[in-house]
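User: Fold this; C-alpha cells only.

Assistant: Input:
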Amino acid sequence: MSCVIKSISPCFETLKAVDGEVGHIAFHQARFDKTRKELYGTTQKIVLSEHLFPPKEFTCRVRVEYANEIQKIEYIPYTPRNLQTFALVEADIDYAYKYCNREALNAHLREDVDDVIFTCKGELKDTSIANIALFIDGEWKTPLRPFLEGTTRARLLASGMIKAELLDIKSLQKSEKFAIMNALVGFKIIKNVCIKD
C-alpha cells in the first residue's frame, strides 16, 4: 500500500527595514521559532539577525522564506499601498501560519475594493494582509481569534495598547475608528474607510 505524504508549504516572515535597520526583530524571531518547531518539527536555533543585511539606501520589505531552514531572503523596495475600501467576506480558512501558499486568502480578493475583511461564523478575523483593530468605547480592540497572529498585533497586545476580544459585525458597526496593523504599516488608522457587504 502506498503512503501519500502531504507536503507543507514553506512559510515566510515579512520584516521592515529602514536605512538598514530591521524593526521589532524579536517578535519575528519568536514567530519564526514557533513555526519551525510546530510546523516543521525542528528546534535547531537560527538567529534571524545573523542572516539579514538589508540595504541602507532605502526602506525595504525583507522577505524571509523558510521551512526547517531559511530558503531565500529578498530585499524589496517598500511602497505603501493606499487601502481605503474593503469588502466583508465570510470564509473558513486555515492560515494559522504565514504560508507562502496564499491561495486560500487570494481566492476571495475582489477588484472593486482595495482589500477584504474576513469573517468566520460571524466573527471578525483579518484582512488578507493585516490584522485589524476597532476603536470602541475608548479602547482599541482586535479580534480574539484572527486567522494569523501577526507580530505587530503581538507587540501591541504586550504593550497594552490594544485588547483582544470577540468581535463581530455589530462591533464593526459601532466602532468609531478602524485600523490595520502589520510589520510594514505598523498601526495605521484608516480615515474615511468604506466597508461593503
